[in-house]
């Protein structure tokens, strides 16, 4: 059986994920895929303008070439909206600035279908659904293949990491600039640098099935 993209994430394999403009046309999406042989396309809503039509258009163009979209959502507090973003056609989501278990629980609930989460069935919409016409078949496929992660951008997130990385979280990565702002504004006894935070997380997550883009 061939590896899925989620398998590659969890196995620590190289992931090619070019970041493209939210204004990209269908043709530009196809050209990016051809030029980079990418595994996934990265869209960032947090630091720029977007509309749902932009996300939907780019996700559809990517799916035409069997390449999904990873979407970084606008704000941490939008974790409750992940199901809506998934209905637009993305396969992977990144939640920024996560610090609490409540945010992680909300993200998992809204991202996954039952029995893992509580994502609402939106009809025949979503990445990969055209090949899976049965509701239960698609929900099972989604729960196995969709990719949910979050950014570590504060000391609170670093210190809470073991509680934050729950089943359903496939990857985490650093927001080094924001993390440094937090380190510089606090006098933590042993977390003084990005390297200190990286070492702390690696030790805390030893044996946990999650990808750490450190």
Computed structural class: alpha/beta
**Unreliable segments of 5+ consecutive residues:** none
Which sequence of SSEs, written as H and E, runs from N to C? Answer: HHEHEHEHHEHHEHHE
Biggest sheet: strands side by side, in what order? 1-2-3-4-5-6
For this structure, what is the CATH class?
Answer: Alpha Beta
CATH fold name: TIM Barrel
CATH homologous superfamily grouping: Phosphoenolpyruvate-binding domains
Distance between the termini: 29 Å
Q: What is the alpha-carbon Rg in Å?
A: 17 Å
What is the helix tally? Answer: 10
How would you explain this protein's 3D organization?
The protein has one domain (5-213): TIM Barrel (Alpha-Beta Barrel). Helix content is 42%, strand content 12%. The chain has helices spanning 5-11, 26-36, 52-64, 82-87, 101-111, 135-145, 155-159, 161-164, 176-185, 194-204, and strands at residues 41-44, 69-72, 92-95, 147-152, 171-174, 211-213. Helix 4 links the parallel strand 2 (69-72) and strand 3 (92-95). Helix 2 packs across helix 3. The relative contact order is 0.12.
């Amino acid at each position: 059986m061939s590896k899925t993209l989620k398998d590659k994430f969890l196995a620590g394999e190289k992931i090619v994920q070019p970041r493209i403009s939210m204004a990209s046309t269908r043709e530009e999406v196809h050209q990016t895929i051809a030029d980079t042989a990418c595994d996934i396309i990265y869209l960032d809503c947090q630091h720029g303008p977007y509309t749902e039509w932009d996300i939907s258009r780019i996700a559809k163009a990517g799916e035409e070439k069997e390449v999904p979209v990873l979407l970084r959502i606008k704000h941490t507090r939008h974790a409750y909206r992940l199901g809506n973003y998934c209905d637009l056609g993305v396969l992977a989501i990144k939640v920024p600035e996560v610090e609490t278990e409540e945010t992680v629980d909300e993200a998992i609930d809204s991202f996954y279908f039952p029995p893992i989460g509580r994502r609402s069935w939106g009809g025949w919409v979503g990445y990969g659904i055209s090949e899976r016409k049965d509701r239960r078949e698609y929900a099972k496929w989604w729960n196995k293949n969709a990719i949910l992660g979050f950014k570590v951008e504060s000391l609170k997130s670093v210190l809470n990491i073991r509680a934050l990385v729950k089943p359903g979280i496939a990857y985490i990565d650093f927001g080094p600039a924001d993390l440094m702002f937090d380190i510089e504004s606090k006098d933590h006894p042993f977390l003084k640098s990005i390297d200190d935070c990286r070492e702390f997380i690696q030790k805390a997550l030893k044996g946990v099935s999650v990808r750490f883009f450190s």
